[in-house]
Amino acid sequence: MSGAAVMQKKREAWLDYARIFAILCVICCHAVENYYGTVVSGNERIDFVPWIVENTLFTIGRLGVPLFLAISGTLLLNREKDVFSFYKKSVLPLIVTTEIWAILNYFFAVAVYRREFSFTDLLKQMLFLDDSPLSHMWYMPMIIGLYIFVPFLSKIFQQYGQIKYYIIPLLLVAFGSVIIPTLTVFLNEDVLGVHRIALKINTAFGGGVYGLYFVVGFFIGRKGLLKKIKAMYLLLAMVFCLFINTIGQYYIYQHQFYTWDDLLWYTSAPIFVMGLVLFEIFRRLGKYLKNSNYPVVTNLAKSTFGIYLLHNPVRLLCSSYLPMDGLNEMLKIIILFVASLGISIIILLPFMLKWKKAGKILFYIK
């Protein structure tokens, strides 16, 4: 999905595999959310075993966006870019694609949700003044915002390429965007009687948690930030974070603190660690994957942005119209996952193979 604007002359297989895994995570997340979302919001209670399965799959699904952002940082911050050339070749096409899908998604919502058409609402969404009716589109204005600063960040990182120059700002952003939101889950008035806390130092210019994934991903992918840590310790860190996040989420679920879902968002410290550790694992697998960039892998990796744009409308239609009444909930999730992925790929095939110019405009296929 991300990083497509600037590719190496020779594709790096590990990044393609990471990108494919990331889109599978995103589709899994939304397929599970179709049923687990009512549990998180407090509208439904389920037994422990299905809760564990759905919560685990949903948490793993959340690792997709951190992977995409880390991939983007690795590809886009690796070399200096001419500002206007980058804006013309990467930012402007991304905005055009986003605007097209803002319109398509709005009319999709009008038709499927039977909403009344409002030109004002449509215009607000196109001007990024209101949220899209389809939840996955939150990613688009966020990534556009990051892309706007890429030419300046890449120049800085080429001149000052060592992590030591960025330790203080990165730690500050991590504290304000990851640590505090995670602690706030358990330090709020519903749980331990403490009101929501927030860092008063403004770190928004640092890109928040998304900029953090973007920049740290660059240092992992290009500077080997985690290369000295043994693989066993990285795997243990992932397992530990998954365990801690699950325990915390189950505590919230059991005590019915439904207004707090931060442990399932990208500001969650365990998800932050798991996402970046997983990216490091893919980087290390690079030496084994360098001769495994088969055409099907390359084409699937190129189409991940398009799959991202398509899969959620497809999922919503499938969940509404596929005859799944009476089926086991886990089977429903699998059906939605397969249908969302498969139908999206089928729709994209002619744009990959024949209508390539249209594919660039509609789906940002590079």
Index terms:
366 residues, mainly alpha, 14 helices, 0% strand, disordered N terminus, transferase, Acyl_transf_3_dom, O-acetyltransferase activity, cell membrane
Describe what this molecule looks like in 3D.
This protein has one domain (13-363). Helices cover 69% and strands 0% of the residues. It has 14 helices and no strands. Helix 4 runs antiparallel to helix 6 (139-159). The longest helix has 30 residues, at 83-112. The protein starts with 12 loop residues before the first helix and ends with a helix. This is Acyltransferase. The chain crosses the membrane at residues 17-36, 56-78, 90-113, 133-153, 165-187, 199-220, 232-252, 264-282, 331-353. One of its GO terms (biological process) is enterobacterial common antigen biosynthetic process.
Biggest beta-sheet profile: none
Q: What is the ordering of alpha helices and beta strands?
A: HHHHHHHHHHHHHH
Number of domains: 1
* Strand residue content: under 5%
Separation, N- and C-terminal Cα atoms: 10 Å
Question: Structural class per helix/strand content?
Answer: mainly alpha
The gyration radius over C-alpha positions equals 20 Å
Per DSSP E runs of 2 or more residues, the count of β-strands stands at: 0
Calculate the mean pLDDT score and round it.
91
How many helices? The count is 14
Low-confidence stretches: 3-8
Overall spatial form:
globular
Specify the helix fraction band.
Answer: 55-70%
